[in-house]
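Minutes, structural biology subgroup

Action item carried over from last meeting: produce the structure token record for ATPase family associated with various cellular activities (AAA) (Musa troglodytarum). EB confirmed the sequence was re-checked against the source entry. Recorded below for completeness.
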Amino acid sequence: MARMSDRLASLGSLAASLMVVYAIIRRYLPLHLLEHSLTKHSFRLFASVYPYVRITISEFSGDRLKRSEAYTAVEAYLSGSCSQRANKLKAELGADCNSLTLSMDEHEEVTDDFEGAELWWTSVARTPRSQTVSFFPEAEARRHYRLTFHRRHRELVIGSYLAHVLREGREVRRRRRQRKLYTNISGSRSYEYRKTMWSHVVFDHPSTFDTLAMDPGKKQDIMDDLIAFRNGKDYYARIGKAWKRGYLLYGPPGTGKSSAIAAIANFLDYDIYDLELTSVKDNTQLRKLFIETTSKSIIVLEDVDCSLDLTGKRKPKRKKEGESGDKAKPPEKEDKEESKVTLSGLLNFIDGLWSACGGERLIIFTTNHLEKLDPALIRRGRMDKHIEMSHCGFEAFKVLAKNYVGVDAHPLFEAVRRLLEEVKMTPADVAENLMPKSAEEDDASCLGRLVRALEMGRPGAAAKVEDGSSGDETAESELTS
Ligand SMILES: Nc1ncnc2c1ncn2[C@@H]1O[C@H](COP(=O)(O)OP(=O)(O)OP(=O)(O)O)[C@@H](O)[C@H]1O
Ligand SMILES: [Mg+2]
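Output recorded by EB:
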């Protein structure tokens, strides 16, 4: 594949000949009256023999405040191909701080192919000839990418290649970016003075569908649904529905609702907006919060039954079984001041006209008490998919056993299977029993602890312990063997 610089070298000799001819004409003929028109014509003549078109993409647009999105997309697009083709590369620390991201160094050229057309990208940096002293000389350089291609590819480049570069470049940037976990809880209440109502940290939760313990069929169903949603842009447009989907995760505490949300975010590679309703002043603020969310994100309302009661008057959040009412309840005054988000405001938030802006958002509610929720809030269309997170079954146990003690099969599995049919234990409790308590503890010991805990949970187990009789003789013999 010929480099653009080689092709330009041969064109250069043609241009040089033309310039010599032009210089001779200028020297010997009184052309001052005709100079303007001749210059124009000589350029036309040169353009007619110069078959290449150039497009320049500058780093900063007019105001120089923000890097142009087109430039960053081209930079990301080229970083993939340049690592294989360019000779001079620049390396910077990537978003994960563990790897280096490569990009083309200045005045370097790479060749690209697109549908049979050959195109050349050059990275150019020019330092302005000003004498001003800058503390950041690097930042002063004006950079741009130059795309050069044969004029016969003009339609292809303008019609589809540039869109391809933008799309691919954005995708590369998306893959490299760090995902974020946003919250609307803020130390200061003066949202008005801040640029955004959300604050964020880097989202780095290790939960995935591989580590999530649930029935494999149910898990696959959720994953298929998520894939259909992520690829559903055209479908949603065709059926006239905003590109968003509601999930309701319900089940007792410790069954993996929050873990499932993290697994979904990791699976889709989306950001999470964790919405704390009790910190939202009113419906207007709720709408603002929604508008400020970006696409490719999950908006989460945890324990929605505790955030808003069915009459629209909010209750303090996080008031769960075992928690004292006083602890969870905010001061009286604050309650009165902030009880302005209504049920209808929340319904609007989920599927009002504003909720369609931006697209590609998943809204997930979690609750421990499905029966407490207003049917309007969870009807299909608002919460399209209802997922029950239930007590640990044998299949879910196998996932936990693999993750926590690294075993796929063990003689104690049969006892666990029988006991799980009888005893309701949450995956959180199963996981806690399986977790080795010291570096020396082996898999049999961890599984044995789980079997004993399950035995204790059997109906009437306490009475049997008191009268000295054993619960499950088979399990007992497997444990001692
Ligand atoms: N299905 C599961 N798969 C894997 N781990 C689980 C699962 N359920 C619970 N766990 C473990 O138990 C812990 C608590 O789970 P999680 O916070 O997801 O429960 P939850 O349903 O959100 O509970 P709550 O209703 O109290 O918010 C997690 O840190 C995780 O390690
Ligand atoms: Mg939770």
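Discussion: The two ends are 71 Å apart (CA to CA).
Next step: EB to file the record with the rest of the batch.
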